[in-house]
Description:
Layout: E1 11-15, E2 29-30, E3 36-38, H1 46-54, E4 59-63, H2 75-90, H3 97-117
Antiparallel strand pairs: 1-4, 2-3
Amino acid sequence: MTLVNLRLEIMSKASVKDLKPGMKLAKEVRDASDALLIPDGAELTEKHIEVLINRDISAVEIEGGLANIRDQCEPELITKVEQELITNLIGNLEDDTTLKTIVDKCVDQTLKKRIQDN
């Protein structure tokens, strides 16, 4: 993934079995024949979740999936990931708020991946 292609919205892939009513889709869901099942931005209901299960959809993109990822991590890990990204990808971000925002999103994604891999 390049920085140009990085989406700044907070979203993540969620297993259908972990979905709860009220979650909001970040990306439309289509079945195997490309029929639209649920449009992007829809707030999930029990019926939506049932449709996804019945159509064998395994995962969907939801909004807000990383909103509290930093609350789930030790501060030392957050600092380490931030420093790795700054050092390896960007350089000095002190005066560039746009790049700082991008790095923050990269940190969140990296933290989530590390948690999922463990």
